[in-house]
């Protein structure tokens, strides 16, 4: 997928060394843009293996507004293991703190909570918010049905009031949906972009969300666009990314969906990849 590989090249060629909270330096650029026409195939990297099931599980987790890390762990999904709400365990790099963060299931009012309960009074993963807040995703779906030409179909995960309770302030902090000439487009904004590990997941996740919203509303899938802020490569990831650049991409896969009544009832098992041909996985250590 050239759009992704070109971002990798840009950061490697133009990036500057930058320190950050993780203790692992990055090579960073101020801004990049990702763009992909969904008619060309589903945007899942082929220059390395990307576990689509983990992407789909996390998206279901967000759509349902779940904030319990164990929901993912019960599905053998460990992408949120290292984090927890700082209201439960204060962030730290030492081994004792890392274990406490790993063991704590509470993630706080992260992405899905904001999508489904923006402005709600967050209590805990197992308690309903009081007040309930605004269901932004439900409102977006309703607007697609009643006024698809609307230019205000926006969902925000950035809520300054709740940041102190979140396991991580949202990296991808909002998205907009537009409909042009019968095609549904999704444009997301991201403040911090881990090019090696996070960005391939973000691309696939929003590509899947675009597809689900198109199915929900009866429009054709259109263009996926990412507006990327601090776009960086950790110094420990450079070798693996250079290896990816040497690989020839395969044709993009497709996806198939078994019937579901609405996006709110969709489960990750309803969607499967077809024809996913890929190069071997490349291990990138996560910077917490």
Largest sheet: 6 strands, mixed
Distance between the termini: 27 Å
Return residue spans where pLDDT drops below 50 for at least 5 consecutive residues.
none
CATH class categorisation: Alpha Beta
How is the largest sheet built, in terms of strand order? 1-2-6-5-4-3
- Counting DSSP E segments of at least 2 residues, the number of strands comes to 8
Overall mean pLDDT stands at 96
* Number of domains as seen in the coordinates: 1
Q: Predict the CATH topology.
A: Thymidylate Synthase, Chain A
Give me the CATH architecture, please.
2-Layer Sandwich
Structural class: alpha+beta
Q: Helix tally?
A: 8
| Proportion of residues in β-strands | 15-25%
N-to-C SSE string, H for helix and E for strand: HEEHHHHHEEEHEHEE
Instruction: Give the % helix.
Output: 25-40%
Radius of gyration: 19 Å
